[in-house]
Design goal:
The complex is a heterodimer of chains A (about 130) and B (about 150). Chain A has about 130 residues and is mainly beta. Chain A is built from one helix and nine strands. In chain B, strands 1-2-8-7 form a four-stranded antiparallel beta sheet, with no helix packed on it. A three-stranded antiparallel beta sheet of chain B has the order 3-4-6, with no helix packed on it. Chain B is flat. The N and C termini of chain B lie far apart (about 50 Å). Classes of the chains: A mainly beta (about 130), B alpha+beta (about 150).
Amino acid sequence: MQRRIVMDRSQEIAKQEEKNIEKTKELYKATPAVDIYENEDEILIYADMPGVVKDDISVDIDNGTLSISGVRKLSVTGSVTYEEFSDVEYVRNFSVPQTIDVEKVEAELKNGVLRLHLPKSEAAKPRQIEIKTA
Amino acid sequence: MFTRISDLDRLFGTMNLLQKRLDNLYGDYEKSSGYRWGFEHTAPRTNLYENGDNFEIRAEVTGLEKGDLNVKIQGNYLEISGQRKPDAPENYKTHRTERGIGSFSRSFTLPADVDSTKVEATLKDGVLYLTLPKHEAAKPKKISIS
C-alpha cells in the first residue's frame, strides 16, 4: 500500500517535469519540533514556532485529531543580502486520546513557543480506592 | 542541465518529498527529521537585510529570554551567542523531545562598519531583530550632478 502511494507520487512528479510549468511561489510547509509531556492530570505539548504571532495560530481538535497550524509572516525592509529563513507555515497533526477534556484545552504562546495544555477528563484520571474495614 | 531556479527548487522539493516518504516508511511519521536537504544550521538561522543607512539582522532564537542572549559588536564584526535553557516541566513523564537545548554562538562579518552605540535590539516571538546603523563613512551619499 505504502509503496503504491510512493509510485503514484513519483509518476506525478515525472509528469510535472515534462510540463515544466512556472509555478507560483507557495508558502513552505514546515514541521515544528515538539516536546510532549504527560502527568496524571494533563498532557503538555510544547511546539517551536519562532516568528509566529498569536493571531496566526490555529489549534483544532476534531474527532481525536489535534492539528496545529501557524503562519509566519515576516515583512522585508530593504534589500536581501542573505536569507536563511522566510515565511513559512508550521503544520502538525497529533492523535489525542478521547479522554481529553476538549472544553478545557488551553494554549499559550511565549517567545515563539506554543504551549498546549490538554487536561484529562475526570473519568480518565487515576483514582485511589479507599479500603473500608468491615 | 538545470537552467532555471524553478528547476532547482523542484529538485529540492522532490528530495524533501522522498525524505518524508522514507521517514514514513520507517515509522517516523511526521517526526521532524534531523536533516533536510537544503540549508540547515545548528546555530540560529539568520537573515541579513540592507536598507540604506542600516543593516538589519534577524535571527531565530526560539524560547530564549532577553537575559539568555549576548550580542557583541566591534567595527564590522558581530557575534550573537546565547543559551537555550531546558524548560521541561517537573513531575511529568516525557514522551518526546525534539526541541534542542544548549548554547550556541555565531559570528558575522558585516559588509561595512556599524556604529555600535546606536544599535537597537528587540526580541519578539522568538525572533531577534537587530538594527545596525552604518558608520558615517559607509553610509550612502547623494552626489549632485553639476
